[in-house]
Write a structure and sequence with these properties.
The chain has 236 residues and is mainly alpha-helical. Helices cover 63% and strands 3% of the residues.
Length: 236
């Protein structure tokens, strides 16, 4: 129907942006139509160096809780509150990146990157599995998974990595420098045994404290596994 005048220009309705979604890690729409990430960025949105740096920081913070405190005072008893916090921490934060890195470093140091590497790599994982099964069987009342026990045993492998580094790389250099002096060779040999003993007690103390292992039946198999790895890094 004509009204005798020109039709007015019809403008499209203005569509407002939807309300921002309140959710962690989901991009929310602003009023201007742009999107903003409301949560932390994932590994797909960051560089490889940032991811590696974050993983190293996480591993170091985990070592501060599990391994570092037990070097000066072996088999130190913890309070009940700290034990409960440690129990929850094991169940909530288990990862296999640190055990994988420690096993690779241990195998490289002991085998000198030769054909023995694959055997040491597989044997180390088998040792961690045996330790985890032992802890799982001796502590059926604890709600800790097998993977968590493998993770915590792998973190306690860190002193053995240091033992392998000192015994296979640094001390042989000192042997090469002072091999003409018999007293230097004897002192370095004794020092190698002392380092092995310290790292062994360090690993056993850490795994005993975190897993609340107090009896001989609980600690002895763990100490035997760590002793085998420490002895291999000393004699090979």
């Amino acid at each position: 129907m004509s009204y005798g005048r020109e039709d007015a220009t019809i403008e499209p309705d203005f569509i407002e942006a939807d309300a921002p979604m309140v959710a962690t890690g989901v991009a929310a729409a602003n009023t201007d139509g742009t999107f903003q990430d409301s949560g932390s960025r994932g590994t797909l949105d960051e560089t490889v160096l940032e991811t590696l740096k974050r993983d190293v920081v996480d591993i170091n913070s985990r070592l501060k809780q599990v391994v570092y405190p037990h070097f000066p005072s072996f088999f130190s008893q913890c309070s009940d509150g700290m034990g409960a916090a440690s129990d929850n921490d094991i169940s909530a934060n288990c990862d296999l990146w640190a055990p994988l890195a420690f096993i690779i470093l241990y195998s490289l140091f002991v085998s000198h990157a030769r054909s023995l590497f694959s055997s040491l790599f597989v044997s180390s994982w088998f040792v961690l599995l045996v330790m985890a099964l032992h802890l799982r069987l001796t502590k059926p009342h604890q709600k800790v998974s097998l993977i968590s026990y493998i993770s915590i045993s792998g973190y306690c492998l860190f002193p053995q990595v240091l033992n392998a580094l000192l015994s296979q790389l640094l001390l042989p250099l000192a042997f090469h420098i002072g091999r003409e002096n018999h007293w230097v060779v004897r002192i370095l040999s004794f020092l190698q045994l002392v380092i092995m003993a310290l790292c062994l007690m360090w690993s056993v103390a850490a795994v005993s404290w975190v897993t609340k292992s107090k009896t001989v039946i609980e600690i002895y198999p763990l100490a035997l596994c760590f002793f085998g790895m420490a002895w291999l890094s000393t004699i090979l």
